Structures are given as structure tokens and as C-alpha cells.
Amino acid sequence: MKVLNFSAVVFLLLFLPMASLSGCGSGGGGGGDDSSSGSGSVEAHSVPEWMIGSWQVIRLRLGVDVSSKNMILTISKTGFEYHYPGCDVHGTLSMDSQTPYYASNEYTLLMTFVDCSLQWDIPSFEGATDEGHVWADTGMEKFFRISDLYGQFTWVYIRQ
Questions:
Q1: Bridge-partner residues for 144, per DSSP?
Q2: H or E segment and range at residue 158
Q3: Are 103 and 50 spatial neighbours (Cβ–Cβ below 8 Å)?
Q4: pLDDT, averaged across the chain
């Protein structure tokens, strides 16, 4: 229970400064769905443009330095893949592509291909999911990810 309480405190310390900015999302108003019968312009799996590319994981598990491990996360418009020593994972990544980089953006990660002989962080297997929040620093050269399902995990990524 102490781990969860500590994790909650860390989450609040990291998340609260961003909370006032989180209302700056996609706008649009009304909360209605512009798509009809699923054929609208909103993609089911989409990420903001600023996230597309390759990122090196430099911190995980509430600050453990892994910068020397060459852990790489590559994000495309509709998915992700990460390559850690002894672990390769591919999957889909769902987010609000209109949320600004500095605002807390909810994500859902679904693992569709997993080849892991070594588990580094969250349980990795085909069909596994993770959910949480991401946001970036001012220059969009670093972003932060916090899991809602695995409270002990906070990741920091830098652009490759």
C-alpha cells in the first residue's frame, strides 16, 4: 500500500502543474461526434504529430536511469514499437491527436506483437494494454508518460 501512496503523490506532483493546461485540448465544443457510422475524419488510432518519430527511454520506474540501455520507442501515426534489450513490442496507440504537447493527453496502448525474453517494465504479452497520460516539455524534445494501470511507472523519453 505504501508503494501506491508514494506513486499517487509522485503522479500528483507531476500532473498537477499540467492540470491547468489540460483544458486546451481539441476544442470543437459540444462533445458531439462529427463522424456518422464510424466514417468520419477522426481516426481510431491516432497520435499528435509532435510524437511521431523515435525516442530514447532515459528514465523509468519513478526515475531509474536507463539512458545507457539503448531503449528505443518509435511512434507512427497509428502505432508504436519499442525495442529494449531482450524485448521487442509492436502495437497500436490511441490518443487525441488534437491535444497540444503541453497538455495531459490520455493514451491507450495495445500490444499486438511481443517477443520478450526479459521484462523491463509493464507486463508485455500479446493483447496486453496500458493506459495513462503523456505530455511534453516546451521544446517537444522530451516527453513524460505516466501509467494509470501501473502506478509505479513513470517514463521520460528524449527525441532521437
A1: 135, 156
A2: strand 154-159
A3: no
A4: 78
At residue 4, the 3 state secondary structure works out as: helix
Distance of CA 112 to the CA centre of its chain: 16
What's the grid cell of residue 114? 511481443
Report the distance separating Cα 85 and Cα 118, nearest Å: 8
Cell of 133: 497520460
Interatomic CA distance for residues 156 and 148, integer angstroms: 15
CA distance 38 to 158: 35
Q: Tell me, what amino acid is at 106?
A: E
DSSP 8-state symbol, 122: S
State the pTM of this model.
0.72
Contacts 24+ apart (CB under 8 A), 79-82: 79/45, 80/109, 82/57
Answer whether residue 19 shows pLDDT above 50.
no
Cα separation, 105 vs 133, whole angstroms: 5
Q: Which three cell numbers stand for residue 89?
A: 513490442
| 19: Cα separation from own chain's centroid | 17
Q: Could you tell me the pLDDT band of residue 100, with boundaries at 50, 70 and 90?
A: very high
Residue ranges of E strands in 2-148: 53-60, 64-65, 72-75, 79-84, 87-94, 105-116, 129-136, 142-147
